[in-house]
Amino acid sequence: MSARLRLFVSDARHSPGRVLGVAITCLVTAVVVGVAALLFTTLAGWEQPERAGLGSVSAVVVATTPDDQVAGALPADALTRVRTVPGAQQAVEYRDRTVSIVRGDALLPDVDGRTTRAWNFSAAVADGYQLDRGAAPAGNELVVDAATAAEAGIDVGASVPTLSAAGVVSRRVSGILRASESTAAGGPVLLLADQELAAMAGSTLPHAILVPGAAGQDAAELRAALSAGLPGLRVLAPEDYKTGDTGVTENKIGGGINLLSLLLFALITSAATVLGTTMSLWTSQRTPQLTVLRALGVSSGRLRRLVLGDAALIAVPVALLGALLGALPGAKLARAALVGADILPTDTPAVSLGGAAVGALALAVLLTVSLTLVASLSGARQAGRLDAAAALNSGSGAVKLRRRFSRLLIGLVLLALGAAPMLVNGGGGALVMGAAATVSVLILVPALTVLSPWLTPLLTPLAGLVARLDRGVGHLIASNLRMSTLRTAGLAGPALLAVGLSTALLSAPKTLDAGVVEQTTQRVQAAHLVVPAGSAGLPLALPAGYTGTAARLLDTTVQPAAETSQGGPTGIAAAGADGAALAGLLDLGPAAGGLTALTGDTFAASKDIAKQHKWSIGEQVPLLLDDGTRHDLRLVTAYDNDLGFAGVLLPMDLAVAHSPDPMLTMILLGGDPAAWPVTPGATVVDRGTYLDALDPRESADSLAPLIIALVLAGYAVLSLANSAGLAQADRGPENRTLRLLGGRKDQLLRLVAGEALAAAAIGILLGLLVGIGGLMPLARATGRALPVLDVMGVVIIPLICGLAAVIPAVLAARPLRPVTERAEGGTP
Amino acid sequence: MSQTLVEAPPALRLRDVTKRYGRAADATAVLSGVSAAFPAGTFTALMGPSGSGKTTMLMCAAGLTRPTTGTVEVAGQRIDNLSDKQLTRLRRDRVGFVFQHFNLIDSLTAVENVYLPARLAGRPALRGRAVELLNLVGLGERLKHRPAQLSGGQRQRVAIARALLTEPVVLFADEPTGALDQEAGREVLDLLRRLATEQGTTIVMVTHDAAAAAAADRVLLLFDGVLSAELHGASAEEIAHRVVSHR
Ligand SMILES: Nc1ncnc2c1ncn2[C@@H]1O[C@H](COP(=O)(O)OP(=O)(O)OP(=O)(O)O)[C@@H](O)[C@H]1O
Ligand SMILES: [Mg+2]
């Protein structure tokens, strides 16, 4: 065994607690980062079944929006233009619309719970689908795919009631589509005649142009030719085109990946700070030993390498161990938990050790080791700079830790980064600012954690004052807190991180939810509402039997045509509405008036959105509607109460005419609900029931921040325990002195516990201040004086942090041990 | 000075004190049958080779460790059979300690360090006394200095002032000059000498330094756990000769 290894082993054997603390921190970091990385690769590498069912065409031509999304529809002349490209003469228009088969009073549910969609017949033919029996649809006839036909018990010649934007229409089944691979995976369920589909209410423009492949023709070449010949349009391979709504599954995967990204970010910042404090405490405790080495003639460079080497000696095997043994079972557990919590879909592939997974694990190990090494760098530099004479002369042995300039710099840079979202969104409305402030908090909290050595002194006098309530040792607690800034910060930092982040993460959605519920309650005045039952929307027209007042609402989107997007999508959630009928049914605040002016080429916007886009009332604003067409609309009014509601209101006729697949989301009823005829796919609810059922956020959405908050809290607990234990370990001589001076056991206990608690309390207080302070803009945006606080974030996690600091400190100090027999020793 | 105190019990008395570490019967005795009396107001130096049991004897005398057999009395009261709680009170009220390493609390100022035992005992009235004691040890100008801002000798004097705060019956010092240079050591010894003469403090000091021992009223020599000689008013040369010749 080399001398250097022997030194390490003897050090580890002499004070196993220190090495154990560092090792546990590394281990947990490796496991947690490994788990996140494994899940990440599992989700990212998940080959989703093709959803469009457009297997056989060579190219799909679509239009794009200014923010580079696929537009809902193409210009009317698109087909003609496409057909001029050589090899694309067989191109056809593609449309799909929501059409459901009615069974009894309900809709026949689709296989995977998605809205049943109908394609135009020639698009299906172009894509190679074939009839099993019967004939192509003519007039309002219908072709049904084999599985659905069997499910509904229908065959050629049958008459089937269907629900679409036009209401319930009885259609004769003209043919049955042959079952194929792709029908099971997102292909068409229903087919209608091209004319029938194109003539349905809503935008008449095609959704896409399909270019079928010809024998001997290279699809990629064709796509290249199309791209070159069709400026302003986009040419996609069929597998890149997704029809209709994004599936629930897809949203979940995206949500899962977002969750993991946020988690990884939070984890890495936590790991960096936690490892940083642990490593520098470790080095500081080893200074007596290192000083002796320095005095024995070891060069400062070697000393530096020694400290780094020791860090690597712990980090490398432990990180490998964690990644190899802990990450895989951990990831499997995490997957099961996330599926159980409905955050990930049930068919999420199992976590296995493929090539990508091994790479992810290697990355996790690398990350852990490099974080540890970077964290121990400052300790190593410190060791290299040790002045043997000064240290040996200082009597107490341990050299005082100094706050590092580099740490200040990193903290300040993070701070600036945290302020960026606020500055970028400076001109935005209250809600935008509120959201930006919440995002800021998520960066500001780690920044303040890095800066904790400079922040905690601001609060130590306060903590000292409280501590002085204890007449015996309070004074000593106050002095210790003040004098050992880094030790105090080592405990305050993790508490600040956990409490600040969990307060912001957990209380932000609560605040928003409360605002949405409050404003919806204010907004919805109608005594009864008609809402969809099932996955389709409501037909556009009011049923003939109903004569009372009613206001229809239809969800759509608009996009400011004149604005360039700076990255993200600029689409605004909009609604088509019967402006004149809204009075008394939907209260959008006093400023909005009755919205009677919302007709023709006009629109209304929420004050927030108007402010964000700098629109003033009476101004003509160029807007792109859902089908990609551009309209100059006049802003007639701006409204309040927009939380959980559309940011832009369009006249109903305009919204319908330019939606590729319009169906109503809700009808507000003013008259007698009993007069509403029973309609399939719709239910009438009273206002109370509607508001009670209002769950503005999916449960999975609020579970995700809870998971992140808990992981962070767990990490903070670990780090607190570590720091508290390490910080106490070098207090042996001091504690012995106190006992020699006649200090009672309970006094010593109070000293140790009080100091740990006070330091953690400083962090908790800072965390609450930043967390709650950062939510104030969001609270104001939702019309409240204060944010709605989550008990977990502001009570339970702070409590856990306090305990995590006190218990290990008391255990490590072990003041209950009788005064040691060798009391005169000066070094631990 | 010892004549006037003949009838009063000595400040400290050890009777037949034996100390073994470990339970094993074959454990060699570190102290075997040590008996000694320390009259109030006397300054005693304890000398002997390294490992002879000096520190152990001090620990037994101060109630920091229990003798295996034998009794220890402080001001006539037995302390070898006290409970842990009673020992805590003894340390707080009746005895003081000064060690080679100064054992000051780094985060407290000089005056706060001196005042600390009073705080722990909940006796705030002694605040003025802390300042007085620092004046006494010549550190009246450095009340607000922290240990890191004091020299080794100054730190040791703060430790002595702290040990004196509760007016202990006996002041124990284990190599109080061991970590100091000659001049600082001299200052500390002068102070201890003065305390015994002027304040009537009973002092028991372990030392390796014959010159330091010469400052005491008498010197006890300990060899292999046995008190082998007692010198009165011996010079440093004599003491050094006795220590070496015994070997
Ligand atoms: N806790 C203990 N357990 C076992 N043996 C001990 C213990 N403390 C001291 N000893 C032994 O007792 C003997 C006397 O130790 P002591 O510390 O009293 O010597 P000393 O005279 O003070 O020596 P020095 O001048 O080197 O300080 C030594 O041999 C030592 O090894
Ligand atoms: Mg000794």
From TrEMBL, chain A:
Where are the bilayer-spanning segments? 20-46, 259-282, 303-330, 350-375, 405-424, 489-508, 703-727, 748-772, 792-813
Q: Name one Pfam family in it.
A: FtsX
* Native source organism of the sequence: Winogradskya humida
Q: Which UniProt keywords apply?
A: Cell membrane, Membrane, Transmembrane, Transmembrane helix
Query: Mostly located where?
Result: membrane
**Which membrane topology term applies here?**
Multi-pass membrane protein
Source superkingdom = Bacteria
Q: What is this protein called?
A: ABC3 transporter permease C-terminal domain-containing protein
Name its cellular compartments: Cell membrane
Q: Enumerate the spans annotated as ABC3 transporter permease C-terminal domain.
A: 262-373, 707-812
Family according to the record: Belongs to the ABC-4 integral membrane protein family.
Automatic annotation (TrEMBL), chain B:
Q: Which SMART domains does UniProt cross-reference here? A: AAA
Q: Which UniProt keywords apply?
A: ATP-binding, Nucleotide-binding, Transport
Question: Transmembrane segments in this chain: where?
Answer: none
Look up keyword Transport and say if it applies: yes
Domain ABC transporter, chain residue ranges per copy: 12-244
| SUPFAM superfamilies documented for this protein | P-loop containing nucleoside triphosphate hydrolases
Q: Which InterPro entries match?
A: AAA+_ATPase, ABC_transporter-like_ATP-bd, ABC_transporter-like_CS, ABC_transpr_LolD-like, MacB-like_ATP-bd, P-loop_NTPase
The yes or no answer to whether the keyword rRNA-binding is present is no
Q: Which PROSITE patterns match?
A: ABC_TRANSPORTER_1 (PS00211), ABC_TRANSPORTER_2 (PS50893)
UniProt GO MF annotations: ATP binding; ATP hydrolysis activity; transmembrane transporter activity
Q: Name one GO cellular component term.
A: membrane protein complex
Q: What is this protein called?
A: ABC transporter ATP-binding protein
